[in-house]
Amino acid sequence: MNTNIHDELTYKIIGCAMKVHNALGNGFQEVIYQRSLAIEFKKQNLGFVREQEIPIYYEEFEVGTRRMDFLIENQVMVEIKALTQLEDVHLVQGLNYLTAYNLETGLLINFGGNSLEFKRLFKKNNPYRNLENP
What we know:
Layout: H1 3-24, H2 30-43, E1 48-50, E2 53-58, E3 61-67, E4 70-72, E5 76-81, H3 88-101, E6 105-110, E7 117-122
Parallel strand pairs: 5-6
Antiparallel strand pairs: 1-4, 2-3, 4-5, 6-7
Helix pairs in contact: 1-2
């Protein structure tokens, strides 16, 4: 996938998240931000699936399932949090989702602080995976 297309898409997603955070501020449960983002994504004509569940395999055995918050335009994973601070475990979770869903790009967005916090995530074998905020 063209990196510029991913950049444009993640930029648009972050804009939606900023609009939601500016309107609601911090302090709500994650589900409130998730529902609000879904409304904003629709307004911006972004195609998305919310809480799509996929199986996780160890060798050929299904060992469980996982759900990411959003899959945007079948290209970008979005995982949202409503925490005072993101921790490494949240970054690892997002990176694992990229691997499980076989996606190149994701966003981890935190609505819990006074300012919106976001991290761009890249698949583990992507040489740009350590890039976070622009």
